[in-house]
Write a structure and sequence with these properties.
The complex is a heterodimer.
Chain A lengths: L1 H25 L5 H25 L9 E9 L4 E7 L3 H19 L9 H20 L3 H10 L1 H11 L4 E3 L6 E3 H30 L7 H9 L5 H18 L8 H8 L2 H26 L1 H27 L4 H21 L3 H32 L4 H4 L2 H4 L1 H14 L7 H13 L7 H29 L18 H19 L2 H19 L2
Antiparallel strand pairs in A: 1-2, 3-4
Chain B lengths: L3 H23 L6 H22 L13 E3 L4 E3 L1 H26 L7 H18 L3 H19 L6 H32 L4 H8 L8 H17 L8 H8 L2 H26 L4 H23 L5 H21 L6 H36 L10 H4 L1 H15 L6 H13 L5 H30 L8 H6 L4 H19 L6 H11 L2
Antiparallel strand pairs in B: 1-2
Helix pairs in contact in B: 1-2, 1-4, 2-3, 3-4, 3-10, 3-13, 3-19, 4-5, 4-10, 5-6, 5-10, 6-8, 6-9, 7-10, 8-10, 8-11, 9-10, 9-12, 10-12, 10-13, 11-12, 11-17, 12-13, 12-16, 12-17, 13-15, 13-16, 13-19, 13-20, 15-17, 16-17
Classes of the chains: A mainly alpha, B mainly alpha.
Amino acid sequence: MEMFDDGWGLSLIVFLPLAGAGLILLLPKAQEGLIKLVGLAFALLSFAASVVAILRFDFGAAEQFQFGTDLSWISAIGSRYHIGIDGISLPLLVLSTLMTVLAIVYSLNHWPEPHNPKAFLVLLLLLATGMNGTFVALDLVLFFIFFELVLLPMYFMIGIWGDRAKIRLPGFRREVETRLYASIKFFLFTLFGSAFMLLGFLALYFKSDPHTFDMVALAEAGQMGLFDGTFGAWVFAALFIGFAVKVPMWPLHTWLPDAHTAAPTVGSVLLAAILLKLGSYGFIRISLPILPQQAQDWAPIIAVLAVIAIIYGALACLAQTDLKRLIAFSSVGHMGFVMLGISTLTDVGINAAVIGMVAHGIITGMLFFLAGSMQHRYHTRDMARLGGNMKTLPIIGGLMAFTAMASLGLPGLAGFWGEFMALLASFNPLDGLSLVVFRTAMVVGAVGTVLTAGYMLWMLQKVNLGEPSEEWAGKDLHDADKFELAAWVPLVLGIVAIGVYPKIVFGATNDAVTELVRRAFGG
Amino acid sequence: MFDYHALAPELIIGIALLATIVADLVLPDRLKYLVGVTALLGLVAAAVPLLTLAFCGDISGCTDTGTRTLFGGSYVVDDFALVLKGLFIVSGVLSLLLSVGYLESDDYYQGEFYFLLLASVTGALIMASSRDLLTMFVGLELVSAPAFLLAGWRKGDLRSNEASLKFFLTGVLSVAVMLMGMSLVYGLTGQLTFEGIASAASVSGVGDSPAFVLGVVFILVGFAFKVSAVPFHFWAPDTYQGAPTPVAAYLSVGSKAAGVVGLLALCYQAFSTVPEIWGPLLWVLAVASMTVGNLIALRQTNIVRLLGYSSIAQGGFILVPFAMAASYDTVGLSDAFFASVTYVLIYAFMNLGAFAVVIAVAAKTESGEIEDWGGLNRYAPGLAALLGLFFFSLAGIPPLAGWFAKFVMFRAVIGVFESPWAVALAVIAAVNAVIALVYYAKVVKTVYMDAVPVTVPVDRATQTPVPRPLALAIGVTAAMVVIVGFFPQVLGLFGEISERLVAGP
């Protein structure tokens, strides 16, 4: 266990999936059963290691980086293999390992066309390494590598296993398949953002003295005021582009509805549950501590963009006919609440952001699972045709109703805390921030929660209620099978548990967030 | 006593290239493959003294460690030269591996091919060591002249003839311009060695005289042709497409790297005292090459032309670290130098790998048009995966080696973030990195996500084996791309070398 605490534990969590991917590559393609077993086993091992991390985590010192190690990696450019987790990264890391397991469990019985479990699992495990790695990296270059590592697998997942429906793009004569358009759009948007993010990282490196990519050292330097002024403004802008595309913040969100809609079910789930969090995590872990002064200058702008995203996401949802697209736009709104929480720069707001991230991860992940399963049965995502789902598929319909309630922020379920506390925090943001802007944001955000409830109920009414359409009569539509239930029950339990007892998350985050705010903003 | 040890790599290749001619003459037809083997062995043998020179200190009986100076300072074997000689020999070996199968399946087999390739590699080795204008010029000519012939290898093919002629004419033109520049520089400074020029140019009245500036610009323009920097690039795509594909691979890597080496040696040594002349010029060349190369590459439908324009854009990325040299301090200069050398090394592996896969796939699909490659992963999953590997590495996506090349390139520029020119250059390079992804990903998309076109002879394609030498070349380059991607420290050695080099003169 000594070794576990000295960096081996986190390294295992990050690299076990990669080892699994390597092992699967060596297996013959025909051995599907074995391939699935290996994939599941390595994801489970990684998850088990993260559970050990919870058990051994010292919650009394959640503001400190634990299980860390700091080894030489690329000394030619001054980058080190520096990893560690604190109370902010721990819940996200566990969320990531858990969702990977559930995604594989769900996949065991639902292979999107063109099948090929070997390639699919290799990509999924590679994705898991990228996601887990981002949450443990404490070196900017390492962070960048993991942050980028998720691009390739997700690009291929959307592009190969994605939706084959044809769409006509404005300005083009030929029709293209949705998956092709969505995959490259996702890739280009994110790469565009991360190219600027990298420039920002390099600028920080050269400004620091001695030159370092170490986040902890940079945060100390930033809190001494080293990066203030025009320099900091440029760097914050560069990082902002990188993270805001990933979150995604309005108006950089346009890749998201396409990517979510086109991706295969598991891809959508991981995209919503984890990939979006990489952006907001970047804000909390990098932008705020390293550039505190600039964060205060930018906070009102972020708040305004966040509430625009909330309202815009809600209105866009009301205009959708496609179930998955609706859930995708709801993500824009929910991430708006997360960003609103971050922009207040208070401990309440950032706590709200982290619990909002976790809640959105499990709730929206669940919604995408359900939408995928419905598409699997009805072969359509058109909500007008899905009506009466409650009668045809009672279990899935019931879970849908439950999860939609969680998503609209019903008190007692997980979605409530993030929204409520983000609004609470924006009533009383960090001293010095414009009260007018933030209180207006709070009011508009509150209207947004009403709209959110509106579209979620509207969706439920269209999909679940009413009489089933004639076209499904006599079709053998089986309800949730055991693989689906195995993937969903943990999420349902999580939604209830966090809703009733949010200390599951706050217990880890609170000290870390308070310390972060105290150091960066003196609040 | 003359230091034969220092000159051993060149001597060994010299002997090997004569041996290939003799072997081709005396061997009966069924043993002709031994000609290629001779050339290959010659190159591998030349790598041995390279290693003993590099690790001289660790070998008993090896004296005179460190930098070796020959011919009165005109020819220097230092760490920088050794690294690049290693690169040239490796890219020569890989190009040979690419050629063997290709030549044998072709109607144009002739043993002289190996002779010419080895001669060109020898020229590149000489360039890496040359420290005066004349030696550099001779080396450069030795690189180019055999390449003119290689480009026109498919005599019956009009495209190949065009390729050769275009290459020859632009090559001669660029050399004429370069010689004009060299004579101006020599006339004003009275020096041929780089050290002499550097100290003479620092005297006021020489380094800032219009004629000297003109001379420097002419020399750089000559090299700009060699590295196919925009606006001196127009020969490259036509030549790449017309030449046999292995030759295109060699031109885009070996020949381009030789040009970059020339630029490195000239800029950081001969003209090290006047960076304000060449810095802005290379800024413009870098920006133009990246942007124009990428934008035109977007429209390409032929894979080799696409790689041609991509190599123009990559050349732009290689030039980026040069551009801000006027504002660098010593540390910054060594970072910039390190960035260019690292970029060239990584680029060599990934581009040769990309060409190797392209040769293998084109042999299967019997077409170089990208759309004919649709659905390649259905009938050749291994090649499809490798194609994705190399193309995404060229695009600079982590964790493949290309990211490190792009990273050190950005690092060299952002080091002077106070300068708006540096920031502008970094932003332009960043946007270009994104544009480049569009066309690299387009090829991967075709291969993985499109349907197999009816015209493709799938049955025959599955039976076409990948020639073993080609498979070996692909394996070596793929391994390098993955290893360097995950653990770039293996290249860190060159960081120390560049520090010593820039501190030297």
